[in-house]
Design brief:
By secondary structure, this protein is of the alpha+beta class. Helix content is 42%, strand content 10%. Helix 3 packs parallel to helix 12. The longest helix has 33 residues. It binds protoporphyrin IX containing FE (HEM).
Amino acid sequence: MPLPSVPRTRTTVLAPRLAALLRDHLGQDVFRLEPDTVGVAGPDVADRILAARRATETERPTFKPLHGRSISRAEASSVTRTIGHDVRAALAGPLPEDVDLSGSWPLTGHLFLRDLVLGGDPYRLRMLMSRNLELTPKLTWSVIAVGAALPGWPRPGGHLTGLAGRAARAVGYQDRRYAMGVYRRAAAPVCFTVSTLVANALWLGFPFEKDMPNRHIIHESLRLLPPSWNILRNASPEYPAVDGRIGEGDDVLVLPLLSHRDPALWDDAESFRPERWESLDPDTAPGYLPFGHSSERCWGRHMVLPLAELLLDLVRRSGLVVDPDRRTAKVPLLGLLGVEDVPLTRPR
Ligand code: HEM
């Protein structure tokens, strides 16, 4: 189902299942999706579901167990701090000169971020940021298995990022495999997700008004195309008490995709209007959950926002434009919600 987006000449084509969700459930608060799954999009119910208990380790998006090995909260926190430090170091350093951001997005933005943040890391770690590995987790594990077994494991020190330094301290095949998995888990949302978010913003809103702050553009892009478009909570005794339509055996899928477009919550909900964020607070706007719920909001958002702002800024200053001949873009049904191919070109 094509959805209109601004500028009006561009059409965003959502994957059929995403389009069906919007068509069938927009404006509903609690609804059955499958015999054992209930969808939730009403802001009050979503709020109570997400506050009812903490996410379990298998529900946590970034630090789920790796090949059956749990990642403790302490380790997750330490890894997040490490990559946060690497991101700040990259942002503080000189930016690469004459960087060419033309080409297909999000791929181009992804490669830029990979080189900016992880550029000095050994190839066997950096290659974990190949977009081809997104296609199948099996392929990722094969690459990890080979990488952990090859001689010449990186040594701590030198020009490694903090994240690679952690991996370098791993000893033995099993620990090296695990370390590579953690490296990928932490670096992927920085490179894959941030470039997806910026590609979405370019598609939805380019050209932007000259004085429009990047932060507003990013919040608005996260509203219409939230990369994390659903938040899963497995069946739990707390949930039927929150709403009688949720059964004891029902998993719950909280759907920012829907609450972010609910006309009862947003003026002109389908339009890309970054100026709305002049008077809205992204931390408290009802139903706005691009980084999850306030009780355990994304730990990475403080690095995501400056990186996305930097990328947008570079594009806005580059003179590049979204190819005016590109009229439609597909949003496939993948883990991350994002437009597939946004071509940035020199103006003709
Ligand atoms: C645009 C980029 C990102 C988006 C849209 C995003 C989105 C989210 C969302 C929606 C949640 C809540 C999930 C839930 O409640 O089940 C979450 C949690 C979390 N995110 Fe992010 N995230 C991003 C980047 C990052 C980065 C760069 C990191 C760190 C490397 C990170 C680490 C986490 C952690 C640690 C949690 C807490 C849940 C957990 O314990 O795993 N995120 N994120």
